[in-house]
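Q: Got a minute? One more chain.
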Amino acid sequence: MLNEEKITLVERHDGIGYGGLEIGGSRILGYGPAPMKIVNPLPVRETKPLNDASSTLRNPPVPKLIKRNTICIALSQAFTGAGMQMGYGIAPLMVLALSGSSSLAGMSVGLFAVSRFMVAYPVGKITDAFGRKPGILLGLLLGLAGSLTLGLAMQKASLVGLAVGLLIMGMGLNAAQQLRVAAADMYPPNMRAQALGFVAAGSLLGLLIAPLLIAAGHAFGDHSGFSPLALPWLILPAFILVSVGIVFLIRPDPKEIGERLDEYYPGYKPLKAPPGAAAERFRAMSLIRPTRTRLAIAANTAAQANMSMVMVLTSLMLDHHGHSLSAIGFSHAFHSAGMFAFTIPLGRAADRFGRERVMYPGVVLTIIGAALITLSQGFWGITIGTFLVGLGWAAANVAATAIIADAATTSQRGRAIGVNDSFAAAAALTSALITGPLIQWYGLTAAGAAAALFALVPLVMWLTSAPAGKPS
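A: Always. Here it is, folded:
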């Protein structure tokens, strides 16, 4: 590696291109004996190799405008995350209260998965065509409508209204996940995973907001004449409106920044796309055919399936071993901490050491976590298991999303992430449908084994793939 040496391009006098290369006055490359002349001496400092050849900077300074936009995106993610936490936390209790059947308690998780599958790709198409902000705002407004529908349905004791509200709410909050795409647009490849991690970390604030809303429902519900399960959903729209206001502060649109990254990061030089690539029609197979992106989708999908089963399994295992509701809630808090508390360092690791070196260990962690939950009888064994599943999901999700964001152009990135989310939603729906029957017919251990087997699939695919799909 060179340090303060001088690199010189030399040109042939006959004008036919560059004739050779000199470093420190010594010719190391030449095209024959033709006379040479120096055209541009350039000082070269010692540099480290990048994960992505499309950037010439290792750690470029982030412009203040992009820092401000990133903070706005993370804050908006916090408020949407609160709605998602309530959807997974109290929506099953709402279904149980209105239907009287524990067999339908998983309906809320299933409807959330269906809504994610329905909206992931279409909203990506919208944001690719019109910008990230219109798609995100559409999602937030749908989430607001869904939240009001859920609150009113619970108040009127309407199971059909509850199902409709869950679908609308799920579509809105999942559409707002284009916030991740907005963050990916604003950073060069060697900083992109960290940016995704920063946005995911915003969900930690959502973990604090959701319990406060639920507590408010219990404290004021009976006195106000509203159901304690309805009131949190009627309060949530106020927070969503705050999120809408924050999104308006993001400017210019992240998609515009992504299309002109070199203007925000001096020295950044993106790879030139082949002629006609910008106008080329996006196809999902363009992500599935290449080994690297196919494995990224598989890893993210498997981690999502594993976690969807574990979220149900953890509560049932703790209850089966006689632990209290407060202990179950504490265990789920550990799981959520695993999901979101470490996304920034995981993103940095993915940028520094390579995406796969974070993604595959994350998948392995979900297998270890599922095994611990299944085989442990004590509280801490199960809790550590559910924490490892959350941490593994975070690693796989951040790294896989970065791989897919790297592979797509700015004008196609929304749809590319939408394809990845569609596969994850299908996996979550499948796991939600099979978890109940597995437990009923074969017991809790069978469901834990199934969660581990889901996560094993991408590892087998990776081990049997061509070398191009493996980290060097």
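A: The longest strand covers residues 36-44.
Q: Perfect, thanks.
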